[in-house]
Amino acid sequence: MSWPTDPQTARAASAHPIPIKRETPARQFAGYSTYAKTWNDRVIQPAAWPDAPFCSSPDQIIRFFRAGRYTQGLAMVVSWGAMGRRSKDIYGQRTSETIEQIERTLGDSARSIQASQSIEDSWKMLTEMEGLRWSAVMASKTLHFLCRSLGFEQNPPVALDNAVIRRKCWVRFYYSIAGVPHPDDWQGNSFTAYCRYMTAIITWANQRNWTTTQMEATIFREFR
């Protein structure tokens, strides 16, 4: 994928790799067991679910997105990311119009990513006032799996969360920096801030010959 690089972040991340004890990357979280009845009011109908109970695994999310069942894929992202408590921020009042808007927007996002090999326009569709108005946390998790469903496996966008990435990883990185200017942080919902985060992840992943998915999964495991 194509990523804008933040030069200050790149210099700092190159000089100060995030401390990781593992020699091999951690596996991505496997997801939770769930049931169709939990999600049927948040997906386009008629829905097609696996036999119950099924798991909101990365593979299942990717299969739904690849099949063009975008709201079903999104439901599994919400489950996988333990974002159920943020349901109103994601789905609003769960009206049919809102669910249809989400389905259209994610379809448009997939087509934009495929054509441009970038998430910049899709990020705006998901986070800005004219779009779905999602947080960077929700947008990053959704775009991670959407990009992987399109075949982008080496350097897809990866999940950004508050508890581990912003409050632990960022703080450890920031206070390790010496001798080079400190980059700006990863707060807020802007694409620019998210690209600073991805600059660090890509830099550290390249140092280990890992994918960005492997890098984020390992950071999450070690800093959780």
Average pLDDT, rounded to a whole number, is 97
SSE topology string: HEHEHHHHHHHHH
Strand percentage lies at under 5%
Largest sheet report: 2 strands, antiparallel
By DSSP (H or I, 4+ residues per run), the number of helices equals 11
Describe the structure.
56% of the residues lie in helices and 2% in strands. With 224 residues, the protein is mainly α. The chain folds into 2 domains: 7-27 and 159-223, no CATH class; 33-149, no CATH class. A two-stranded antiparallel sheet has the order 1-2. It is globular, with a radius of gyration of 17 Å. The two termini are 28 Å apart. The mean pLDDT is 97.
Q: What is the strand and helix layout of this fold?
A:
Layout lengths: L6 H9 L17 E2 L1 H4 L14 E2 L2 H9 L3 H11 L6 H5 L4 H21 L3 H8 L8 H14 L12 H15 L14 H18 L3 H12 L1
Antiparallel strand pairs: 1-2
What are the main properties of this structure?
224 residues; mainly alpha; 2 domains; 2 strands; 56% helix
Summarize the structure.
With 224 residues, the chain is mainly α.
